[in-house]
Amino acid sequence: MGEVEPAFIQDLQHRPKLTIIEAEGIPLIDLSALNSGSADAVSDASLVSDIGDACKKWGFFQVINHGVPLEKREKLEKAARELFDQPLEEKVKMRRDEVRVYGYYDTEHTKNVRDWKEVFDFTLQNPTIVPASTRPHEEHVVEWYNQWPQYPPQLREACEEYAEEVERLCFKLMELIALSLGLPTDSFNGFFKDQTSFVRLNHYPPCPAPDLALGVGRHKDGGALTVLAQDDVGGLEVKRKSDGEWIRVKPTPDAFIINVGDIIQVWSNERYESVEHRVMVNSKKERFSIPFFFNPAHYTIVKPLEELTSEDNPPKYRPYSWGNFLVTRKGSNFKKLDVENIQIYHFRVSESELANRFGKAVSVA
Ligand SMILES: O=C(O)CCC(=O)C(=O)O
Ligand SMILES: [Fe+2]
Question: Is this prediction's ipTM beyond 0.90?
Answer without folding.
Answer: yes
